[in-house]
Design goal:
There is one protein chain. This protein is α+β, with helices and mostly antiparallel strands. The protein contains 16 helices and 16 strands. Strand 15 and strand 16 form a beta hairpin. The longest helix is centred in the N-terminal third of the chain and has 20 residues. The radius of gyration is 28 Å and the shape is elongated. The chain starts with 14 loop residues before the first helix and ends with a helix.
Length: 414
């Protein structure tokens, strides 16, 4: 017998769940388009050599790679940053700069499945590439905030910091350059671990307790940098609520490539972690593909954002895609039902025609209820002779007889 189970670490999305995800994707894309970002889609497969060595040794183990039928070593898309860098390299001199792109596509990682972690998941990225202007950093914050405003999540906090200023503070505290990024990775855990736990972790990396304690004290007393303040001021001018931007001197972001602004989105009512983050990276694209190009961007936590929206009651209630089911009274009247269905569709009404003329009417009504279709049209012999229909409201359990014109107007005026 064939195994009909879903692969571990992968998910199916049926009906309502699929509609919720489609709603979120459309909402996010609408905001990106409003800000002038262009959609980008890249292939599921890339050459293996493009991906290997770009994320680190541990990440390389998570890349799904294999030999295709052309004896080429290929790999499934691991993230959207490296493919975007390839696009930049391939189209050097042809893309309008700054290049503003967004990408909402699945990625694959051979990770150990656990709660909230899957082997296939959607990444949602946006970047402005080819400029180091302060306004670009501000716009990234603005489009990120606008997405949550569009969803209806008003409690979003955007914690911001300056990676350049953070590294300077580390140096003043006595952290040597060869330890800088390792220390940053530990500091980045301050929102999940206590200070004592972080200090213990720093000690395990060879940092003395005195230097570790002094570092945390210095971070707490750090003032906002002039550059970061200018970014915040510009973001507020672009519509971001001033109170939602929270200077957080201990915010570190674990990735090494950030060079300036770093930020993280938090929805206080959602307790499973941040809902995305990002920052400025002025050397990353050159490191990846050898093209000197500055950039700033973010990755939005797609699944977490949907979960937060559900917790806050911001996800719309979805019924069937069809507003009305046109039943078939008997095989002789099937063509009449099909004509009415077509007329409704051409008038912009989402209509479904029941497909099996041999089924009794009560079976067809149960089908409408099972799919959540709110209205049903019945065309019996009497209705067909008078060129009218019966329209049933499935929730209120009432029906009325209408002409075809009245039927169309009923839905168009709803």
């Amino acid at each position: 017998m064939n195994n009909v189970q879903t692969l571990k670490g992968f998910r199916d999305f049926l009906g309502q769940d699929a509609r919720k995800r489609q709603w979120l994707k459309n909402t996010i894309a609408t905001v990106f388009e409003r800000f002038g970002f262009e959609p980008l889609e890249t292939p599921t497969l890339e050459y293996e050599e493009l991906l290997l060595g770009k994320y680190g040794t541990e990440a390389d183990k998570l890349i799904y790679s294999f030999e295709d039928r052309g004896a080429r070593r290929v790999a499934l898309r691991y993230d959207q940053t490296v493919p975007t860098a390839r696009i930049i390299a391939q189209n050097k001199g042809q893309l309008p700069l700054p290049y503003k792109r967004y990408q909402i596509q699945p990625v694959w990682r051979a990770d150990k499945p656990q709660k909230g972690r899957y082997r296939e998941f959607v990444q949602c990225d946006a970047d402005i590439i080819g400029t180091n202007a302060t306004a670009a950093d501000a716009e990234i914050l603005a489009v990120y905030a606008a997405i949550y405003a569009e969803i209806g999540i008003e409690s979003l906090q955007i914690r911001v910091n300056d990676r350049e200023a953070l590294i300077l503070t580390l140096a003043k505290a006595g952290i040597t350059p060869d330890n800088t990024f390792s220390v940053i990775q530990s500091i980045d855990k301050l929102d999940k671990k206590s200070e004592d736990e972080v200090i213990a972790e720093l000690e395990s990396k060879g940092i003395t307790a005195e230097i570790a304690q002094n570092l945390l004290q210095m971070l707490e007393k750090t003032s906002i940098s002039e550059k970061l303040q200018s970014i915040i001021d510009a973001a507020v001018a672009m519509g971001v609520k001033k109170e939602s931007l929270v200077f957080t001197p201990t915010l570190a972001r674990g990735l090494d490539y950030y060079t300036g602004l770093i930020f993280e989105g938090i929805v206080p009512e959602y307790e499973s972690g941040s809902v995305g983050g990002g920052g400025r990276y002025d050397n990353l694209i050159e490191q990846l593909v050898g093209v000197p190009m500055s950039g700033v961007g973010f990755g939005l936590g797609y699944d977490r954002t949907l979960e937060a929206a559900e917790i806050l009651g911001k996800v719309p209630a979805f019924s069937s895609s069809a507003q009305v089911l046109v039943t078939i009274f008997n095989p002789e009247l099937a063509s009449e039902s099909m004509k009415v269905t077509n007329m409704l569709r051409e008038s912009g009404v989402t209509a479904e025609c029941y497909l099996d003329a041999t089924k009794k009417l009560d079976v067809q009504l149960k089908y409408a209820n099972a799919k959540g279709i709110p209205y049903v049209v019945v065309i019996g012999p009497d209705e067909a002779a008078k060129v009218v229909v019966k329209l049933k409201d499935m929730e209120k359990r009432i029906e009325k007889t209408l002409t075809l014109i009245e039927l169309i107007k009923t839905f168009q005026n709803a």
